[in-house]
Amino acid sequence: MGTLDQAKIDQLRERAQREIDQGTLPSCQLALAIDGEIVLHEVYGDATLDTRYVVFSATKPVVASAAWILVQEGRLDVGNKVVDYIPEFATNGKDEVTVEQVMTFTSGFPHAPMGPPQWWTRQGRVERMAQWRLNWEPGTRYEYHATSAHWVLAEIVDRIIDGDYRDFIAERITGPLGIGDRLQVGVPKGPQQDNIATLHKVGTPADPEELQKALGISQLPITEVTDDNLMKHNHPDFRALGVPGGGGVSDATGLALFYQALLHNQAGIWKPDLLHDVTTNVRNTLTERLGNYPINYTLGLRKAGDDGYSHMRGFGRTVSPQAFGHNGAAGQLAWADPATGLSFVYLTNGIEANTLTQARRGVALGSIAAQTRESAQA
Fold it and tell me: How would you list the strands of the sheet with 342-348, edge to edge?
């Protein structure tokens, strides 16, 4: 068994404290977990240990993990077409899109719109999906689907269970793991939302010269992930909706323990062969257009890989190639490393306008966190 490196723990604390001391973030919270237990849980700034945060795209693996249950039960085949589960989806050339393509972001509709008022009801969402058009031929390229793909995945889950994906996640995943009061996809309006941190815009955007020097481009691609759209998650209705691609809420321990479950499966939620597949089998190695590196997606997770690009995939520079996870907008970090048995989560309610500042913070925190424990496989 590996041991904790106290010097690295202190370094991690100092790095998390930096933006708080500088006044550039309102608060942040972090957690480390090992062997199914939280070994570090700390908060910095204007928050408490009970504070929860909108985790944005770190929600995606939680929703995917609900689909995994249906796969192992033989109720969902990711090789099937989406229309096998949602016949209304068979419009505008989308009849050939597979579930696997949806879960690996190769399905061809990254810019498909979904928003109020359609997304408040299942009927409205399905009607909107039927209107969607493809941006490119499914399976031919990778482009991140910030929210569109997981609306489809959630509807597939709803159809199969004849219920609601949010309830299914609570009943089959977060409830059995004992984290249902911490990690939620869809938080009912009222007292349950009282401990969710209010999001704040901070910083100023990187100027064209900064972007050119760091990324080789002078302007970032336009996507739906804007600061203004992220800020909408302060609204109680948005929090209750539980946007499946980015509307989950958690404290750092909830997500850290979710990832411990993917490492150890203490509650026996998923079959071992299924977990092995989704945490190791990279199904999408297509190139990320901004950075020109293979994206490394399994069926719902990113994998760090051994090609020197782990920091570009959100893990820092010091994780093992086997590390897996999925970060979220605003700098949310969430991953696990089988080599050390660690899971690490960092959350903040500061929406940093400078994406380079945010990315550098994430690389620094992830790189330190990965070194807080010696290899459990040594």
Answer: 37-45, 27-34, 342-348, 333-337, 324-325, 302-303
In angstroms, rounded to a whole number, what is the distance separating the alpha carbons of residues 253 and 42? 10
The sign of the torsion formed by the CA atoms of 232, 238, 244, 246 equals positive
Pairing type for strands 287-288 and 342-348 reads unpaired
- Burial of 352 per CB tally in 10 Å (0-12, 13-18, 19+): buried
Report helix, strand or coil for 186: coil
Which DSSP letter does residue 286 get?
P
Q: How far apart are CA 39 and CA 284, in angstroms?
A: 33
CA–CA distance, 365 with 353 (Å, rounded to integer) = 19
Cα 312 to Cα 314: distance, rounded to the nearest angstrom:
5
Whole-number Å distance between alpha carbons of 332 and 54: 9
Residue 46: partners with Cβ closer than 8 Å, 6 or more residues away = 26, 27
Segment 18-37, tens digit of pLDDT: 999 999 999 999 999 999 99
Among 251, 247, 240, smallest CA distance to 183 is for 251
Residue 377 has pLDDT above 80, yes or no: no
d(CA 199, CA 247): 13
Q: Which candidate, 333, 322, 323, places its Cα nearest to that of 359? A: 333
324-325 vs 333-337, strand pairing mode: antiparallel
Cα 18 to Cα 25, 117, 274: the distances in Å are 9, 40, 40
What is the model's pLDDT at position 212?
A: 72
Is the pTM of the predicted complex or chain greater than 0.70? yes
Helices 252-264 & 272-280 angle (0-180, nearest 10) = 110
Strands 342-348 and 333-337: antiparallel
Handedness of CA 220, 226, 228, 230 (dihedral sign): negative
- Does pLDDT of 134 surpass 50? yes
Rounded percentage of the chain residues whose pLDDT exceeds 90? 89
